[in-house]
Amino acid sequence: MTSTTPPHAPPLASHGFFVTGTDTGVGKTRVAVALIHALREQGLRVAAMKPVAAGHAPGELNEDVAALLQAANVAADIRDVNPYDFAPAIAPHIAAQQAGVRIELDTIAAAFARLAAAADVVVVEGAGGWRVPLNERDDMADLAQRLDLPIVLVVGLRLGCLNHALLTAESIAHRRLPWAGWVGNHVDPAMACRAENVAALHARLPAPCLGVQAHLDPAMSAVDAPQWLTLPE
Questions:
Q1: Alpha carbons 32 and 116: distance in angstroms, whole number
Q2: What is the average pLDDT value for the chain, to the nearest integer?
Q3: Which residues are part of the catalytic machinery?
Q4: pLDDT in tens, 53-86
Q5: Helices 194-204 and 161-174, interaxial angle, to 10°?
């Protein structure tokens, strides 16, 4: 299936973008990869970062991290690209507790600074949804606030997405974080009233729509998915 052409595109940030989602499994990596390719097409040096990743077979690289590394055109130390990596596919703070590790925002911020020094733009992909805990005090929203990057919100288009999207937008506004825009991703091919739901998001989210991705085969990797985001010259 084809995807629509995005009606708007985010302004180029001086140092990057933070890609988050309304939930886990909504297509953040596909959007992050598409954003990286769009930025590269403008001749920019683009680094990728997945501060926290959870879920991979022993001895293998996390699938999301691998896709981001393949998309980026700035070589970087894997410890900066992915400072915290856990094998179990569970909530990051629980995986960290089981591993005897505490996820530290200072560690992530220092890794981001090194990536930013070597690149024009850093695309940072969060883990899970907007408020996923990272330790006993901080969550993913705290990390986004610490990095102070424009937010790209990926909305998983399925039943319940309006509530999830609007609550997330409310939290982003509460923290006074800058918006880059939102992206709709059809994760449920059988979703009823798809056009009406997308129209409701257009009307209610306080940021431009960067694109709406048609449903893709879940087996298709983020790297193989169509690169459909475009940015202004």
A1: 16
A2: 88
A3: 50
A4: 999 887 789 999 999 999 999 999 999 999 999 9
A5: 10
CATH fold group of domain 16-213: Rossmann fold (3.40.50)
Domain boundaries, given as residue ranges, for the chain = 16-213
Q: Alpha-carbon distance 38 to 35, whole Å?
A: 5
Beta-bridge mates of residue 182: 153, 209
CA distance 84 to 102: 9
pLDDT of residue 195 exceeding 80, the answer is yes
- Check whether 226 has a pLDDT greater than 60: no
- Three-state secondary structure string covering the chain: CCCCCCCCCCCCCCCEEEEEECCCCCCHHHHHHHHHHHHHCCCCCEEEECCEEECCCCCCCCHHHHHHHHHCCCCCCHHHHCCEEECCCCCHHHHHHHHCCCCCHHHHHHHHHHHHHHCCEEEEECCCCCCCECCCCCEHHHHHHHHCCCEEEEEECCCCHHHHHHHHHHHHHHCCCCEEEEEEECCCCCCCCHHHHHHHHHHHCCCCEEEEECCCCCCCCCCCCCCCCCCCC
In this structure, the strands spanning 121-125 and 209-213 are unpaired
